[in-house]
Amino acid sequence: MDHLPLPGKPTLADSLRIPYLSTSLYDGGPFADYPARHGWQLSIRDGKFSITRNGESPTRDATAAFLQTWLYFGLLSEALGCFWKPEMQQLFVEEGDKGERWLSTQYLEGIVVDWVGYMAEVSAGMSWKARLRMWRKLYWRISSGQKTTEYADEVRESYDRFQSSMKLVQTLILYAPRSELNALGTDQVLGLMALGVYLCTSWWKIYRHFHGRNPELLTAIEAGQAMTKPYLQEHMLKMNWCPSDISRIMGKSSSNVIWYYANMQPPRAEMDHSQCKEVFCSRNQINSMGRYQLAHATEDCECHLVQAKLEDLREVLAQGGIPVLNFEEHNEIRKNAVSVHKGSKANFVAISHIWAEGLGDPDDNALHNCQVKRLFNLIGQLPTRQPQSRYLWIDTMCVPVYKKDQGLHKKAMQKMRDTYESATEVLVLDAYVQDFKIEGATPLEAFARVVNSSWMQRLWTLQEGRLAQRVYFQFADGPVELRKLFNSISHQVFPSRAALATNTEITMSYRASKFHTFEEQKEILKGLYEGIIATRDAVMSRGLSKDSDEALCLSTLMDLDPTPVINAPDNEDEKMRALWAMIPKVPLSLVFSRAPKKLPIPGFRWAPSSFRGPIPHDIHDWWAGPDELWKRIEAEPTPSGLLVKLPGLFLRSVHAKDGWSNALDMGSHYIFQLPDGRWIGLGLGLPWSQPIKDTRPEKSPEGVALILQDNSLTERVHEDFSKSTIIANDIPSKGLLVGLVARVKSMENNEIHVAGLQHAQVMELPPDVSTMFSAAVSAAHKLWDRLTPEQPNSEVVKECIAVAKEAMLDPTVLDACRNQRRGAGADESDDEIMYMIAEMAHNVYLGGFNTVDLVPESCKWYVD
Fold it and tell me: Where's the Heterokaryon incompatibility domain (predicted)?
């Protein structure tokens, strides 16, 4: 794994050497046939993977050698095609002083560049820079109109072979934790994953041009994380990483980035994380029950406290100004010295910090004198273009303490946005970053420090970084503006360097905090309620010491007036209700949100009670509902619920004795007939909002509705309803639709007020199944017409057979039944089909069936 980037002092890479196990060279033949060519047999049965050689069980060492030769060097051979020569395998071997042999990828990148040159018919003796130029020329050649069909086909065929090999590797790795593939060991799988990701990246641009989409293989090779994540997680725990940091990294990072982070020194390593959880770090929290300890600049200091007088703060805030600390030329600070800042007249620096690191005071507006001196010394080192800043703002001293004057505290909090926007610079102080000397380090490691700092995991600091004109981070050897550092990173695409993906992912983690230029930021914040999904992504892993502060932070980020949030009752639900009430429109997807907790407040039961956690461990985050609706900013928060315009159905049963009928069985799904004859399956999911009494819609005596994410079901019904279509054989089965089952509270003037009950998934049944169910219902109608409740069972059975025979006169019904029984491997004889229809008709006769009524297209929903 020598080709992967590492921090300056790796904690794992130096001690992890991957043994070279191969006892033979890869023969250069087709990848999939290699085992057969050398007498090996592989089988997967009932989830178990087994390997034999010539019918016998090989030793563990022999198996490991075979697997490394095949999977590692075979993958290289398949990726590089005829450029790969068996003797190249020796370039991946490094010998130790005692004769031990290790895998090495120090020449991997050079070999890949030579391969690209070979494809472009470049001389192998060309310099590295010349090869770079030819790589760009090659890409231009295949992506321009001048490419030949023969060349395009050749490249496509080469990639398809490589893709097939990667899929096979994916399958093998997927079974590795429970198979003989364990003979390879976790270190070998780590190396194989790193190689696979690199080779996929090398093909990226060519693949995208010919296939029109990104390759699936970059995620496919990640299947090995089932083995490698526990290994790396164990190492990180031994290094005293906080479980919350590990959870965040494992949930959101690729294997190469996890490898990089696992080799870093952890943040807060000197602290005890035994009480920390995967959701948050307890050492980053302020203990509201205990006495907060203000830190000195040095351990042996015992200097006095410097306070900002409440009267001075009140005077400044009453004038509409921003209280700032004044710095004296004789390097002392006048006690209680604050000056008024209005507009852009005063030149001040705002400090952004973590209260858990000792620069906060929940009881008074005070800091130790040594810390105040240190702060002014630090802002004096900023390479500002403005005249030397003489004023400093820090929340600890400039925001009146809530305990002493609640009204004044609220007034200062209303000015938080103005404070950070007005500051000429914001200086970020974080212990993990301040311990790191940036001189001689790579930009990547600097970014990785910031990404994993405590500052990046707190919600208050997100707005401070977003709103500032210029943000500096204090490193051990001085302040650095990371935006410039970011822009200095080379984004070299050709040749595909192993560091590129890691560079991009880590720097994008930093970029997610939106540290843009001031003008860019103003444009982004212009309608940030349209970016609710992006805001959720930015804050999901950030913590707060006081949950009720979340809505205030979000209101500032979204450029909303914080006053309603500040004046709301002091609990997180009421403050979050005030936030949602200010947003004029939200994504339509939120009506289907599966946030783990929603507000228990009437009118806002649709609204997530927090934008934070849990961190999703897959691609899709259901906090915001289906992604197809994210960009439709059409839903309106109202006191009566979320106002949406979506298609829907009224659900009801016919001749059922107790709620919905399950006479027509489809496993866990309830079956409903649409007016045009099609049938849908409805699967009920989790409760939609806070658990309430009697949420089971299938037992509800009141009207029940189904709200759908789109009109793919109802559109055809509205179009064809006038034709009285009974069976729609030409309509294929659709995929799953997201739905919401709700109790109808009232309906008037095309406005339907409903109470959300349960999430649902809806699927349209295949035409043959719809035909069978419709035939059964038609037969049951005849039974209801012909039979009375007093008739004996023998006559009922006789009549069921009779109506079944009548149904079979329709060749469409007969063909549908035969198709279904054939697919299930069942008897297709007429007698068996007759008994099947008779049984379904009898079940419907006794238990009824479910149907729907169309909700008029002009209706609007108030969902609560």
Answer: 348-429
